[in-house]
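User: Run a structure prediction on this.
Assistant: Running it now.
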Amino acid sequence: MRAAVYRGVNDVRVETVPVPEIGPGEVLVKIHTCGICGTDLKKIHTGSHSAPRIFGHEMAGTVVAVGAGVTDFVPGDRVMAYHHIPCGECFYCRKQTFAQCETYKKVGCTAGFAPSGGGFAEYIRVMDWIVRRGLVKVPDGIPFEQAAFIEPTNTCYKAVDMLALQPDETVLVIGQGPIGVLLAALARRTGATVLTSDLYPERHAVAAKFGLDHPLDACGDVVAAAKAATEGRGADVALVAVGGNALIQVAMDAIRPGGRVMLFAATQHGEAPFDPAAVCMDEKTLMGSYSASVAIQDEVTQLVLEGYLAGFDLTQLISHRFSIEDAVAAIELASNPQPDSMKIVIQPGS
């Protein structure tokens, strides 16, 4: 099969590799669509993971073979696969902090080499614990492109859910890439007023398709704009959907006393200055959310699959589609976003 293989820092090559073999309890899936996630790009550009690997985890496709003992899936089933599923029993699972579970940190899908998702390939092997709890059937009539958004929607829904938004609150979402728009759209569903900040009018135009009608120009004074929209108080919540430590202070300044800042894209270690008195005296909360939650898996599945037929069409976030042969170009574009680029997908099986 053909796959985009990570060979080292900034080195991805389209190669021919063996189709993975499955064992008992496992499933082989032919990938139709796989989105490129910022975490994939971080791994490719920082060398945080050893090579060779095949990345990609926002994926959907068709079951083509099942291992011994698999009774819930048959060849021909349309599915999406989570690549992480927790054990459900450890200390962190009992606290519902699933992303810190050691089993969750293991990757349960692979296209070969060290398991790394594998969606940037024609086929993936889905391991037994994922088959049991993280392989989701996709009904006929729902595009694979929509189903591929189930995992990223889960991560965003988790963050929004943690904020416990109220209808009388105002939320500032900093960054309107595909994840920023998704975060903002989910926040809007709570009834809250959502302000969106980005550098590019083209991205605000995409956001408008999801009813996001309070755009702010990130080149301007976002803090002042947030205060102007809230009788001078500041937003109740700021969601930071862009990597960049300097934005943490912007977010802290943009919220009211007693408000919350949610870091969503701060996935690289570093140091970020902020005013500790803003946390102590102004009672502002600085919090974070990472990866998906199994506790909301069924709710998110219903939202994405049924939502497609009810106007929650996430395929509108896709700006570019690439074949597996052009995967390197896809990764290059995703790594260097343009005003008109949003979600980039690789489609080995389109």
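The first strand starts at residue 2 and ends at 8.
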